[in-house]
Amino acid sequence: xxxxxxxxxxFDGAGGATxxxxxxxxxxxxxxxxLWLHFDYTEAATRAWLAGGSGLEKLVAxxxxxxxxxxxxxxxxxxxxxxxxxxxxxxxxxxxxxVAIRLWVDGHRIISTRRRVLLSVTxxxxxxxxxxxxxxPGDFLVMLAHQLTTRMGDVVEQAENRMxxxxxxxxxxxxxxxxxxLASLRRQAIGLRRFLAPQREALLRLQxxxxxxxxxxxxxxxxxxxxxxxxxxxxxxxxRDRAIVTQEELVNRLSDQLNRRxxxxxxxxxxxxxxxxxxxxRASTWGASPAPTTPGPSxxxxxx
Length: 304
Hints:
Layout: E1 5-11, E2 17-19, H1 22-26, E3 35-40, H2 44-52, H3 58-64, E4 72-76, E5 79-86, E6 99-105, E7 109-114, H4 119-129, H5 137-169, H6 175-208, H7 216-286
Parallel strand pairs: 3-7
Antiparallel strand pairs: 1-2, 1-3, 4-5, 5-6, 6-7
Helix pairs in contact: 4-5, 5-6, 5-7, 6-7
């Protein structure tokens, strides 16, 4: 058994799959049906198999176990090397801390690797158990793209709703609380957009690659997923711009409040400062020593 193997599924071509143990995976042949192997690449056994037992080129094996990746799609002949990202919906995680999945697809075999759990992949595995999953490699790519994009849409919608709440709170909330919340929302929008923009390019690239196992109907469905992703990017840009405008409005309000307070302090100082000076002068005059008998200036002629 390969310790890094999460699951191995052999598609039946009708939306279902058969789970295979590792010994049957090693005996698999392309004629047996499409095989999907999903690994945790952090396991040493996975990296060893990718490098020596998978039959993959060294460059591909290294890409499937790379720590840092950006979304991309590269065709190598009739084979595909891709990396995609999904929002992190694991408990206690930040959505903008996106989870990567690395893919190798050659028309007969799908190899995917990850470090953290990606719910989109879990959903596909569960759909196969219900016999509602992908039927072939192209269908797998389409379903994965839609799963990733749909979950991104939920997070973007939450960000939009949160932005609307902050705009309503502008007149009533404490300034420092609102400022921190706006900054947090802007960081989230920037973090999401950092990976969604190259992911859009990866999905667009998938539509144009000449892969014999990617049918025209599947390209159309990929185009639809790409359109949804573009709308999510536009919504994130709108959230970011609204946050900037709201922050500027908040700064203007704080400046107005500061100016009004300074004006009040100036009025108070203009009224009470002369009175304070007069009181000091009177105190110094009344507390002066008796006038000397010799001619000289009187006490009232000096000081105040």
